[in-house]
UniProtKB/TrEMBL annotation, chains A, B:
One of its GO terms (molecular function) is corrinoid adenosyltransferase activity. NCBIfam families: cobA, PRK05986.1. Its EC number is 2.5.1.17. Residues 4-22 form the Cob(I)alamin adenosyltransferase N-terminal domain. CDD domains: CobA_ACA. It is an enzyme of class 2 (transferase). This is Corrinoid adenosyltransferase. Required for both de novo synthesis of the corrin ring for the assimilation of exogenous corrinoids. Participates in the adenosylation of a variety of incomplete and complete corrinoids.
């Protein structure tokens, strides 16, 4: 057998294995995706899925729970899609910036009210709740209320939740969970947050 | 001291610490970001950064090295930005689909040629090389050629490289590296790849 034939045979076996796995994955429904961990990519991955969803003509909703984490690049970009996208920047910035716990809680509650309305509305195909985990970790929003809203949402609706420290009970009910792990970060080497990358 | 005052004082100390760290990060230049690991979010995070970059009016280039990994949602979405974005889908799909190593290598080389031209062209502010790591792991593209092109690229140019199995020498020269770790995946529970999430 030539090396080319061996390669083809190995790849044919691999294809059969993968095709069998794909054939077993037959369920079609809205999924709950959670991006957590300390590394870069939690929010940007959420915005990449938002781009995919808009590409399919889905109606999309975004609620950003922490104003300080907000990228002006994202806002400028996604604001162009007025008709298909409801984009809400809520929250009051990072807690060490506001230094006012009562105001932070009120802002988180207002953001959750907007999010809960989206999760109850079947006209939204895709909902991104950016940095919701931060508000859950700080107990500014009731985890039970969030789990109930997620469980009773329209069955076709996709939801993506980002932020470090995802609570265990959220991880349990999610379909796809990724931990973004820092291997290294430019900031550690003295490089400022860069437009197009962080901003 | 009231609990509110204690909170404010704690947050004030945290703010000073973070502000000092931010003040130390003064370098401004193009960064090299690598998204690797087996989890979801490597490509979607790259596309989120592409959205940020387009939001800032940057000229952007995208080369997708593996056709099979390609999301129709992304293509439909980003094709709308003709003037600011050069979008190349190269490659010949996953190796177990083509089963033809010579064709895979030729496709990877053609994709790398387009990418190398972008890395030599200062008019590109942001370049996304999606799934390049796969082609490097399979040694379809010469790692030394890639490292040389990255090192001699325009100093302001941002580059994002995705794909599992990032080579150690690429990780060494990168500024920001994230490992996307699978905690769980919907596919394992029999759920098909979903439009807007994977497709």
């Amino acid at each position: 057998m030539t090396p080319e034939e061996r390669h083809r045979e190995r790849m044919q076996r691999k294809k059969e294995l993968i095709d069998r796995k794909i054939a077993r994955a037959t369920i079609e429904r809205g999924v709950l995706v959670v991006n957590t961990g300390n590394g870069k990519g939690k929010s940007s991955s959420g915005f990449g899925m938002l781009a995919r969803s808009l590409g399919h003509g889905f109606r999309c909703g975004v609620v950003q729970f922490i104003k300080g984490s907000f990228s002006t690049g994202e806002e400028a970009f996604f604001r162009r899609f007025g008709e298909d996208l409801d984009y809400h920047v809520m929250g009051e910035g990072f807690t060490w910036e506001t230094q006012d716990k009562a105001r932070d809680i009120a802002a988180a509650e207002a953001a959750w009210k907007v999010a809960a309305d989206m999760l109850a509305d079947a006209s939204y195909d895709f909902v991104l709740l950016d940095e919701l985990n931060i508000a859950l970790v700080k107990q500014y929003i009731d985890l039970d209320a969030v789990l109930t809203a997620l469980a009773s949402r329209p069955p076709e609706q996709h939801v993506v939740i980002t932020g470090r420290g995802a609570p265990d009970r959220l991880v349990e009910v999610a379909d796809t969970v990724t931990e973004m792990r820092v291997v290294k970060h430019a900031f550690q080497a003295g490089i400022k947050a860069q437009r197009g990358i962080e901003l």
